[in-house]
Amino acid sequence: MEGLKSWSIPILAAGVLLGAAAHAAAQSPATADRIVTVWLKLADDPVAIVRSRAPGRRLSPEAEKTLVAQLRSKQQALIPSIEANGGKVVGTTQYSMNAIKVAAPSNRLETLRKLTGVAAVLPAPISRPDVAPRNRRP
What we know:
The protein has helices spanning 2-32, 47-53, 61-84, 109-113, and strands at residues 35-42, 88-93, 99-105, 118-123.
């Protein structure tokens, strides 16, 4: 009985590892098609960065309007490629970050990262507003 105990633990451990590997392999196709939401960060600087480099850290309203239009134009030019790769544009931003928020299959993220003008693919955490009542003192 003592000999049975000494070799049964490694066999049980190997069985658990093989079972976990088989489970992971069975899950791979399903998770590859999972839709994730990410930011496609674009190479051009956003308004906040351009503004921080300007004299007095300010842009004229016309200059800011022109910059936003240029950034939006480049973002719009990428949308057909994003959609061709299974992505759906959820939103855009030009001020704090020059980026396009995209919902896409997880197995297409590398293809989206390689699109011209895309500098990085960043996670887009889901945020929910805190609507819980606050404790108020009378």
